[in-house]
């Protein structure tokens, strides 16, 4: 939708209905607007990153998943998450690709980050062994995440 030259009348009306009253659209209104917008396309792609970080309080994560799975068939979903049992159960039967970080890649990433973190870089310059200890500790703790 970001490539469209104009904001749709649907979205404009929703905005206008709430801006003057200084209110926010309800989840039902937002879902209705999303479905209307999606209906204008033959395919729509939705990416949800870090689903595991969505709170389970008040069934927020379950409600989000139910909503996403209720979207029209022209919607293609990509959801990333750590492998939590509750999420695996909720998404049972849906295509899945497990990805694990290689220790070599984590090591390279952490080594590249240390110089960009000013406070950390200052300590590592004083004690290069500290840098290596940090890298190895993080690589060991990552366990493929």
Describe this structure in words.
This protein is mainly alpha-helical and 145 residues long. The protein contains 7 helices and 2 strands. Strands 1-2 form a two-stranded parallel sheet. The longest helix is centred in the last third of the chain and has 15 residues, at 128-142. The two termini are 32 Å apart.
Mean pLDDT: 91
Count every helix, treating DSSP H or I runs of 4 or more residues as helices: 7
Tell me the fraction of residues in β-strands, as a range.
5-15%
| Shape descriptor | elongated
Radius of gyration from CA coordinates: 22 Å
Poorly predicted ranges: none
H/E topology pattern: HHEHEHHHH
Task: Count the E strands.
Answer: 2
Count up the domains.
3
Describe the sheet with the most strands: 2 strands, parallel
User: What structural category do the secondary elements indicate?
Assistant: mainly alpha
Physical arrangement of strands within the biggest beta sheet = 1-2
Percentage of residues assigned to helices: 40-55%
Q: How far is it from the N-terminal to the C-terminal residue, by CA?
A: 32 Å
